[in-house]
Design a protein that fits this description.
The protein has 500 residues and is α/β, with parallel strands linked by helices. The chain is built from 14 helices and 16 strands. Helix 6 runs parallel beside helix 13. The termini are far apart.
Length: 500
Amino acid sequence: MLNGRSVSVPSEGTLLSALRDRLGIRSAKDGCAPQGQCGCCTVLVDGEPRVACVTPVARVAGRAVTTLEGVDDAVRQKWADALCATGGSQCGFCTPGIIMRLLDVEPTKADVERSLLAHLCRCTGWQTIVEAAVDRPQRRDRDLTAASERARIEGGGTQRVSADVALGLGGFADDSAPADSLVAILAPSGEWVIASTISEARHVAGVVPGRRSTVGLTWPIDVPDDQRGDFVRTLRTTWVEPAYLEPDAVWCTPGDEPVGPLANGGAFGGKTTSWLRDEARRLADEHGRSIRIVLSREDVVRHGAKRPPLAAGVRADGSGVVWVRATTGVRKLVAAVAPDWDVVEVDVPGPRTSLDPRAAVWAEIAALRASVTDHDRVVAPNGSWAEAWSDGDAVRVRVGCGVALDDVTLRSYCIGAAHMGLGWVRSEGVAVDARGTVHDLTIRSFGVLRAVDTPSIHIEVVDDGSPARNVSDAVFTAVAAAEWRRTGFAPRWPCTRDSR
């Protein structure tokens, strides 16, 4: 039974592949399949939450499966309204699974946070999800067009704010592909394998699920020994995965423009864009059929751009030097935001790096500059600013970014950015060996802070009436600087993870 009606599907593959590829269910999302770690594909099997990507479809024969589409309309709408009212859903990729998990959970902070251990969310920073689940606020009068504009400014891509986004209806590329599309996935050899379903293509290609490695984190660049005495403080960073929950997906019909991968949100600058679109167009024209390209979580980690690892030192006057993995545009960026800093590009084996991920390089310089002052105010290149204070149990942030447009959306993005800044300093990183091969391929290995580990975050907005500007990048940086100050300026980020 599926949502109260009898259905029949072949016994091969997983419950998730049956739901999405054969039965047209779109609320269950594929964020990590078949790792079973992100919770985006959570459904109910005989009333109990299960992650569909690791549940063989044969195992649910004769059992009752309920997806978000099968939840009572009134209940589903109340959850959608509550998450929209708190800003607990930004892109909306993870929230359908979270709703399914929380349907029968006691609405207490402790119980909700404990239940969220089975899930990951990159956008929201958890707090607004917890508020929605505990307080259950309902629809409030808001200008959702203005809210969507604030979301676009903060997220770096077109994004719609609406209650139905929390139900997974934001318009993701892999949800909108024609039903008769062929599927293209990358084989371990790097070649495209074409089949009628994702599970069939993965089987033909011999794809093996990624694992968390025993290889430890590395900090590949260091400040030269003969220059350490020049600086008041130094910092080293490692490889960091952007960790957006929706894997890159594109579809294209022959002769048309590709759709995706940026369909509802910009993944804060981290998501791949052009090369997948070019491949989807080429394959569609070559096969004369609509083609879906869906990257696995492992593909995203291997091929997606990382923020450049670096080492840097700051002098008492705020000037300094940054040794950074050679990355297109880094000299120009530093010259624009910190003309009193020198740049040394270093060739380091490893995955592709880019300046597109949130505040790459300028955030590290800003944090170092803040460390030689008595405050953690950060002014972003666009003129917005953020001040942050962290005591371990709570984070307080004060921001200025022009008109709010929508206070709920602005607060949500600031909380999400604060969560990301905390994780960057405390725990985030992926293992890359001396040859440059990425080893940490599971979504749980990236070090993203869990709900139970995230302190309360308080946001104060100073509205000066000027034009609206992105401020979440400044929040991300200011919170990282404040958390670093709290640690006593540990010389490496993340501070709480060591090499194995």
